[in-house]
Amino acid sequence: IRKRISKEFEGYLMLKTTNLDRFKKESKLMMVQYFINLNKYEIAWELLLKEEKEAESQNNTFINLLIQRMKLQILPFYAQESFIPTQKKLLVLQKQLAVEDQFQLYFIQIQQELKNQLSLGEVKGTSGIIKDCLKNYTALKDLAISPKTHLRTIEIIRTEYLIKRRYYLLVNALKEYYENVVDLFVKGKNLAPELARLEYIMAHAYYNVRQFDSAREHLSRINELMKKNNAIHSNFIVKYISISGSIAVFSGKIEDAIIAHNNFLAGKSHKINEKDFLNLSLNLVAYYCTCGDFKQANRELLYMNKSTGYYQKNMGREWLIRKEMIRVICQVEIGNIENSLTILKSIKVQHQEMIELEEYRLVSAFIDLVIRYLNDPFSSTIEQLEKAIASFNIQKQKLFEDPKLLAFYSWLKSKLLCKNLYDVLLSEYALINK
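Above: the chain's sequence. Below: its structure in token form.
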């Protein structure tokens, strides 16, 4: 009798313990399996029903499917009337999980191919990749369009347009799509992280075409989501600061951008990965240059002292070239002309196959203009700069879709006109917007 009472009391205490949030999902299900092994089917069934309800509220397909499989161990001995509902639910969840798994594989495969293109500086697009990948995943043939599926589709579209540097086309492609699907994210359960990602994509797209009012609207929505959810705050705070800072620069508030970046980087409560840290640090260097504090910019660059191979692999070739071009500006402004020429020539040699591509041809032309200016500053004129820009036969607004590109152009123009860099940048931005 004592032995039986002890077992029953143990089961009761463990059942009560599950009311506390001290166990992870895996631990709770292991405990259920423990009861099943002891043939305590009633207790195990009650626990599974509780976990099933929570899994459904969180749209957790994997855990829900695991629960149904555990029910199969109990049904021959207990709750036989639940066989049909369990059968139907299990079959639906199997199909749903197959779709989720195959879409994740499909998405990872495409993203990896695109990442390789970015690392190598190639621009091929995704049309062929998408067609080849879809052949491998039969469960995606009749895929129902859920909010998460919409987001993955938007991610693929965005990546392709960004690689091809078609910023205006990207905004046009995303605007109508966003308006048609955003309510699905707002009204859906537990979709706050996906909604934050969608808002960030829109903010970044509008920022790239300098539609700052629209970008701010989406950033404000991200900010509201970050206030309510710590995980969203951790994932998006760096992106939020980066875009907000860039908008502040073009709005005549560069000091606000510098303060925000410095405060965040100096804050010990924030834990960010190296990639985010380097992106924010390089932004800060660019802002110091823009407001004329080249010595401080150079000091910040000194901490980025790892090999070019390391930065190319972990940050991408485009980021590396931007860093080196900013370093050229710092070296010129502190008087190290020979060092600047060495860096420029090194860029042309090390990244020749990339800057010869159609999408990067302006980089090569800009490097040649800077080399000409450094070799003979008195013979270089603003007319030569404008003539070089005109030779691309592209409207200036289209040419400077990338705000970073406009900043480099403004620096060289400020040198030729002997004017303040930030004043030139703001005037160029105002002219382009007109």
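The chain has a mean pLDDT of 84.
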